[in-house]
Amino acid sequence: MSDGYENEDIRRRLMLVDDHPMWLEALSGDLEDDGFEIVATATTGDEALKRARATRPEVLLMDLQIPDPDGATCTEILLDEFPEMLVLVISASGERDDVLRAVKAGAKGYMVKSASPDELLDGVRRTAAGDAVFTPGLAGMVLGEFRRMVTRAEAHNDTGPALTTREIEVLRQVAKGLAYREIAERLFVSHRTVQNHVQNVLRKLQLHNRVELALYAIEQGYHDGEPPTVI
After folding, report:
1. What is the pTM of this model?
2. Is residue 64 a contact partner of residue 70, using CB atoms and an 8 Å limit?
3. pLDDT digits (tens, 9 = 90+) for 181-223
4. What Rg value do the Cα atoms of the chain yield, rounded?
5. CA 211 – CA 225 distance, rounded (Å)
6. Are 74 and 45 in contact (CB under 8 A)?
């Protein structure tokens, strides 16, 4: 690969969920040609839950409009069980409610199916490398929503949420897209300690998951690198 993602940190084991077999076949072929391993595919929510639990993919490409449970519900369930998993939603819908529901469920990013094959492939690569990836126009909408959430949280806490030095260190690492294990290694603490810090920060900020936390960190300037990738 020549896109700057030739490194050992990129996740390679993928699972694809979509109820259109031809779409699954085409995308699977492109991803395998790029060096990814497709460990499972599914066309329904029930299949997605069973096969993800059996194969434990590192990255999950999820459609929203699948037979029950839908993609957002599956995302929330699986990330509760496997918080290290990265989920990229690839959907025909670019509607605000669908995008925000997916992100609130824990999806790392959101792309629309109308994107070109090259754009989709690049989005998967970037997600697998830990980036938050959004189709143009969606990133601004999501950040705008979380600006409003942060404003509400700060209004609830007269002086704003007070974070400890360690919580801020963890927040910076979350914003980079690092998994709990990677954060623990960088900060020389246990995996459980990182989880506890993240839960404390989520509670203080009145946020729901790591994706919301990463977006908050970017908005507040805790991120050392680039904002969410726009494909």
Report:
1. 0.69
2. yes
3. 888 888 888 888 888 888 888 888 877 777 777 777 766 766 6
4. 17
5. 16
6. yes
